[in-house]
Amino acid sequence: MRADRLRRLLAVTAILSLPALTGCLTERQRAVLWQQPANRVLAPDKIDMTLPVGKSYSLAEWDRNGTQDMMLLLLAPNARLEKRYHKLHDLTLVIMRGTAIVTVEETRYFVGPGSAVFLPRMTAYAVEPQKPKDGSAPTEVAALLVFTPPYDPQDAYRAN
Protein backbone atom coordinates (compact mmCIF):
# COMPACT_ATOMS: atom_id res chain seq x y z
CA MET A 1 0.00 0.00 0.00
CA ARG A 2 2.83 2.37 0.84
CA ALA A 3 4.57 1.64 -2.49
CA ASP A 4 1.34 2.38 -4.36
CA ARG A 5 1.01 5.80 -2.67
CA LEU A 6 4.64 6.57 -3.50
CA ARG A 7 4.07 5.67 -7.18
CA ARG A 8 0.99 7.92 -7.35
CA LEU A 9 2.86 10.77 -5.68
CA LEU A 10 5.74 10.46 -8.15
CA ALA A 11 3.33 10.38 -11.10
CA VAL A 12 1.51 13.50 -9.92
CA THR A 13 4.80 15.29 -9.27
CA ALA A 14 6.05 14.41 -12.76
CA ILE A 15 2.84 15.61 -14.40
CA LEU A 16 2.79 18.86 -12.44
CA SER A 17 6.47 19.63 -13.06
CA LEU A 18 6.38 19.01 -16.84
CA PRO A 19 5.10 22.50 -17.74
CA ALA A 20 7.71 24.05 -15.46
CA LEU A 21 10.49 22.06 -17.08
CA THR A 22 9.43 22.83 -20.64
CA GLY A 23 8.66 26.47 -19.76
CA CYS A 24 12.32 27.26 -19.08
CA LEU A 25 13.50 25.82 -22.39
CA THR A 26 13.88 27.75 -25.63
CA GLU A 27 11.67 26.86 -28.58
CA ARG A 28 14.58 25.04 -30.26
CA GLN A 29 15.39 23.06 -27.09
CA ARG A 30 11.73 22.00 -26.77
CA ALA A 31 11.70 20.88 -30.42
CA VAL A 32 14.83 18.79 -29.88
CA LEU A 33 13.47 17.36 -26.61
CA TRP A 34 10.23 16.20 -28.23
CA GLN A 35 11.76 14.78 -31.41
CA GLN A 36 11.35 11.07 -31.88
CA PRO A 37 14.79 9.51 -31.40
CA ALA A 38 16.20 8.43 -34.73
CA ASN A 39 18.74 5.69 -35.22
CA ARG A 40 20.87 6.33 -38.25
CA VAL A 41 22.74 3.30 -39.46
CA LEU A 42 24.97 3.38 -42.52
CA ALA A 43 25.29 -0.18 -43.79
CA PRO A 44 27.69 -0.20 -46.77
CA ASP A 45 26.33 -3.52 -48.03
CA LYS A 46 22.82 -1.99 -48.21
CA ILE A 47 23.63 1.04 -50.39
CA ASP A 48 24.80 1.44 -53.96
CA MET A 49 28.43 2.53 -53.80
CA THR A 50 29.16 2.59 -57.54
CA LEU A 51 30.50 5.72 -59.17
CA PRO A 52 28.33 7.07 -62.02
CA VAL A 53 29.89 6.45 -65.44
CA GLY A 54 32.15 9.27 -66.58
CA LYS A 55 32.44 10.93 -63.16
CA SER A 56 35.67 11.28 -61.21
CA TYR A 57 33.84 11.70 -57.92
CA SER A 58 30.35 11.67 -56.48
CA LEU A 59 28.97 13.26 -53.33
CA ALA A 60 25.63 11.75 -52.30
CA GLU A 61 23.53 12.90 -49.37
CA TRP A 62 22.89 10.06 -46.96
CA ASP A 63 21.20 11.69 -44.00
CA ARG A 64 20.33 15.29 -43.19
CA ASN A 65 19.09 16.63 -39.88
CA GLY A 66 19.23 19.90 -38.00
CA THR A 67 22.72 19.52 -36.57
CA GLN A 68 24.77 17.63 -39.15
CA ASP A 69 24.84 16.10 -42.62
CA MET A 70 26.13 12.64 -43.48
CA MET A 71 27.27 12.23 -47.08
CA LEU A 72 28.92 9.50 -49.09
CA LEU A 73 31.98 10.42 -51.14
CA LEU A 74 32.99 8.11 -53.99
CA LEU A 75 36.36 8.92 -55.56
CA ALA A 76 37.53 7.30 -58.82
CA PRO A 77 40.88 5.46 -58.76
CA ASN A 78 42.76 8.19 -60.66
CA ALA A 79 40.86 11.20 -59.30
CA ARG A 80 41.79 13.69 -56.62
CA LEU A 81 39.67 15.89 -54.39
CA GLU A 82 41.70 19.09 -54.70
CA LYS A 83 42.93 20.93 -51.62
CA ARG A 84 40.08 22.89 -50.02
CA TYR A 85 38.79 24.14 -46.70
CA HIS A 86 35.47 25.13 -45.09
CA LYS A 87 35.04 28.36 -43.13
CA LEU A 88 31.81 27.37 -41.37
CA HIS A 89 31.92 23.56 -41.12
CA ASP A 90 33.82 20.92 -39.20
CA LEU A 91 34.25 17.72 -41.19
CA THR A 92 34.84 14.15 -40.09
CA LEU A 93 35.91 11.81 -42.89
CA VAL A 94 35.67 8.04 -42.34
CA ILE A 95 37.17 5.72 -44.97
CA MET A 96 34.83 2.84 -45.77
CA ARG A 97 36.49 1.23 -48.78
CA GLY A 98 39.86 1.53 -50.48
CA THR A 99 43.00 3.25 -49.26
CA ALA A 100 43.67 6.95 -49.58
CA ILE A 101 46.13 9.70 -48.92
CA VAL A 102 44.51 12.50 -46.96
CA THR A 103 46.62 15.64 -46.89
CA VAL A 104 45.84 17.86 -43.90
CA GLU A 105 47.54 21.24 -44.33
CA GLU A 106 51.03 19.98 -45.32
CA THR A 107 50.96 16.54 -43.66
CA ARG A 108 50.05 13.40 -45.62
CA TYR A 109 48.20 10.57 -43.88
CA PHE A 110 47.81 7.09 -45.36
CA VAL A 111 44.37 5.81 -44.35
CA GLY A 112 42.30 2.70 -44.98
CA PRO A 113 38.89 1.28 -44.10
CA GLY A 114 37.82 2.32 -40.61
CA SER A 115 40.24 5.27 -40.41
CA ALA A 116 38.71 8.58 -39.36
CA VAL A 117 40.11 12.07 -39.93
CA PHE A 118 38.69 15.08 -38.08
CA LEU A 119 39.05 18.36 -39.95
CA PRO A 120 38.09 21.46 -37.95
CA ARG A 121 36.83 24.46 -39.93
CA MET A 122 39.54 26.46 -41.73
CA THR A 123 41.72 23.33 -42.08
CA ALA A 124 42.93 22.69 -45.64
CA TYR A 125 42.67 19.10 -46.87
CA ALA A 126 42.85 16.98 -50.02
CA VAL A 127 41.94 13.35 -50.69
CA GLU A 128 43.29 10.97 -53.33
CA PRO A 129 43.36 7.18 -53.75
CA GLN A 130 46.63 5.60 -52.65
CA LYS A 131 48.64 3.82 -55.33
CA PRO A 132 49.49 0.26 -54.20
CA LYS A 133 53.20 -0.51 -53.65
CA ASP A 134 53.05 -3.46 -56.03
CA GLY A 135 52.49 -1.09 -58.95
CA SER A 136 48.90 -2.14 -59.60
CA ALA A 137 46.23 0.47 -60.25
CA PRO A 138 44.69 2.27 -57.28
CA THR A 139 41.14 1.37 -56.30
CA GLU A 140 38.08 3.56 -55.85
CA VAL A 141 37.72 5.19 -52.43
CA ALA A 142 34.41 5.37 -50.55
CA ALA A 143 34.23 7.62 -47.50
CA LEU A 144 31.54 8.82 -45.13
CA LEU A 145 31.64 12.59 -44.59
CA VAL A 146 29.96 14.13 -41.56
CA PHE A 147 29.56 17.91 -41.75
CA THR A 148 28.70 19.92 -38.64
CA PRO A 149 26.64 22.12 -38.99
CA PRO A 150 24.77 20.82 -42.08
CA TYR A 151 26.66 21.09 -45.36
CA ASP A 152 26.39 24.24 -47.45
CA PRO A 153 27.93 23.88 -50.95
CA GLN A 154 28.84 27.60 -50.88
CA ASP A 155 31.23 26.93 -47.98
CA ALA A 156 33.99 25.19 -49.97
CA TYR A 157 37.06 27.24 -50.76
CA ARG A 158 40.14 26.22 -52.75
CA ALA A 159 43.36 26.23 -50.76
CA ASN A 160 46.77 27.00 -52.28
Q: What is the fold-level CATH name, i.e. the topology of the largest domain?
A: Jelly Rolls
| Ends apart, CA distance between termini | 75 Å
- Strand tally is 10
What number of structural domains do the residues give?
Answer: 2
Count of DSSP-assigned helices: 2
Order of helices and strands: HHEEEEEEEEEE
Architecture overview:
The structure is a single chain. By secondary structure, this protein is an alpha+beta fold. The protein has two domains: 2-34; 44-158, Sandwich (Jelly Rolls), CATH 2.60.120. It contains two helices and ten strands. The chain has helices spanning 2-23, 27-34, and strands spanning 57-64, 69-75, 81-85, 90-97, 100-104, 107-111, 116-119, 125-129, 141-148, 157-158. The strands form two sheets. The protein has a five-stranded antiparallel β-sheet, with no helix packed on it. Strand 5 (100-104) and strand 6 form a beta hairpin. The longest helix has 22 residues, at 2-23. It is globular, with a radius of gyration of 23 Å. The model is unreliable at 12-22 (pLDDT under 50).
